[in-house]
Amino acid sequence: MSDFISEEQHHAEVAALNHEIYRLTKHIKDKEQERALSEMPDPKDPFNNPTEYHDYNDDYSEVLPPIKTPAYKISLEPDYAERQKIKHFYAIGGWCAVLQFAASTFAAVVIVLIIRTLLEGQNPDADNVSITTYMKGSSILTSLNMLIYIAANVGCAMIGFKMAGVKASSLVKTRDYDVGKAIQYCTAAMFIWLVSVYISLGVEDIFTKYGYSTEVQDMDGYAVTKLGFVISIVYTCIIAPVTEEFFFRGMLLKVFSKANQRFAVFATAVFFGLAHGNLPQFLLAFLLGLFLAHITLKHGSIIPSIVVHIFVNTFVTVMGELDLSGDMEIVLNLSLEALAAFGLLMLLIFRSKDKLPATTPAQSKRGFAIAKTTVGVVAAFTIQTAYMLFLVFSKA
Questions:
Q1: Which residues pair with residue 42 across a beta bridge?
Q2: Higher-scoring residue by pLDDT: 108, 194
Q3: For the chain, how long is the longest CA-to-CA vector?
Q4: Is there a contact between 313 and 241 (Cβ–Cβ < 8 Å)?
Q5: How far apart are alpha carbons 293 and 337 in whole angstroms?
Q6: In a 3-state reduction of DSSP, which class is residue 42?
Q7: Lowest-pLDDT range, 69-83, 212-226, 263-277, 329-343?
Q8: Nearest to 277 by CA among 392, 164, 179
Q9: Which of 51, 309, 365, 372 could form a disulfide with 358 if both were Cys (CB 3.0 to 4.6 A apart)?
């Protein structure tokens, strides 16, 4: 009997020991898996960059599928497959920028020529100067300009979204944004605008000394009819800001941010400046573009940048319509300088809390280093830069 009990106890002890071994083995495996998962890169922060806005990022496994493998380490240099995938997104942005430029520039020329031909056919006795003056002063050119830019900005942005697999609706889901921040950003933008004005005046002075001019657009006599004026105001103050933000801070910033947010901020600012076709507006658009891209990343939405863009365009338009002199002009200039000083304070407060994203060594290999070898990006930059320079030096 005692032998039987001893044998039963032995089996029980063995079973308990096996259970404990199983428990410990499972615990070790769970801990190992937990450790591996903790070491696996965050798909929205694959480069372990605390300065980036991770909520804005897409899942980097779209670019590098192995990133979801436990304990996977991203190499300093991208391999061929990762490099090609990044180039794919950069190429989408570059070729869409080329298409947007072509549609908004050359398509406008073709349509204007067609309308001119029709007007000449209906008015055979009218000379070229009369027809040009009529088209420029009426609502024809400003209406065409508005329709063409709507089609170019929105159409090319939608093409880019489709090719990149990005939902346009995701760009209006705004985080941590209120009226106070809207006022802060708009006044900060006023400081940026005033700085760009002074820089533009200095650049224009340099060009003038050598017989050139940075002013390539003659706006005298443009949209002088009531309808033309109203359409011009609506386009400048509402349509242009909304559609440009949809393209530049919407699609372009998104596809350029796949691996390096800092690169995306500067790249979109450059293309935003070049899209304006002249040096003074390039300077404003570039400086303002840096700020607009920054607040877009911070809030994960184009709504804040649209509000700022509308404010700046409306302010500049109103300023252009004012005809002041004497004491009123002095008061206005002092008011502008005071507003700009307050804007500088708002900008400094913003930048003290929110820095532009920095770049890790691995990201530096995946930003400009890849973009400069992407045909679409190089083509967009070269074509638009050449066109702007052509306009400047052809006015000599």
A1: 45
A2: 194
A3: 130
A4: yes
A5: 25
A6: strand
A7: 212-226
A8: 392
A9: 51
Residue 183 makes CB contacts below 8 A (sequence gap 6+) with none
CA 204 to chain centroid: 27
Q: What is the pTM of this model?
A: 0.85
What is the spatial distance between Cα 351 and Cα 158, in angstroms, rounded to a whole number?
32
Q: Is 45 helix (H, G, I), strand (E, B) or coil?
A: strand
Read off the amino acid at residue 37: L
For residue 281, the one-letter residue type is: Q
Least Cα distance to 271 among 108, 356, 380 occurs for 380
Return the closest-CA partner of residue 252 out of 143, 346, 384: 384
Task: Enter the tokens of residue 146.
Answer: 């508005």
Q: Please check whether residue 116 is in contact with residue 135, taking contact to mean a CB–CB distance below 8 angstroms.
A: yes
In the numeric block, the tokens 């980036």 are attached to 52
Q: What is the pLDDT of residues 340-393, one digit of tens each?
A: 899 999 999 999 999 999 999 999 999 999 999 999 999 999 999 999 888 877
For 350, residues 6+ apart whose C-beta sits below 8 A from its C-beta are 184, 185, 188
Q: Which of 269, 53, 58, 265 is nearest to 175 (CA)?
A: 53
**CA 200, CA 276: separation in Å to the nearest integer?**
14
Residues in contact with 316: Cβ distance below 8 Å, sequence separation at least 6, in sequence order: 193
Q: Is there a contact between 303 and 246 (Cβ–Cβ < 8 Å)?
A: no
- In terms of Cα–Cα distance, which of 279, 271, 291, 284 is closest to 197? 284
Q: Where are the domains of the chain?
A: 81-393
86, two tokens: 């990044």
DSSP symbol at 66: G
Length of the chain (residues): 396
Q: Which two tokens stand for residue 120?
A: 């000449």
Question: What DSSP string describes 229-256?
Answer: HHHHHHIIIIIHHHHHHIIIIIIIHHHH
Reported as a single tens digit per residue, the pLDDT across 57-114 is: 989 988 999 888 877 888 999 999 999 999 999 999 999 999 999 988 887 778 778 8
C-beta contacts of 62-66 below 8 A and 24+ residues apart: 62/165, 62/258, 63/89, 63/258, 63/259
Distance CA 290, CA 331 (A): 31
Q: How many CA atoms lie within 13 A of 302 on its CB side?
A: 23
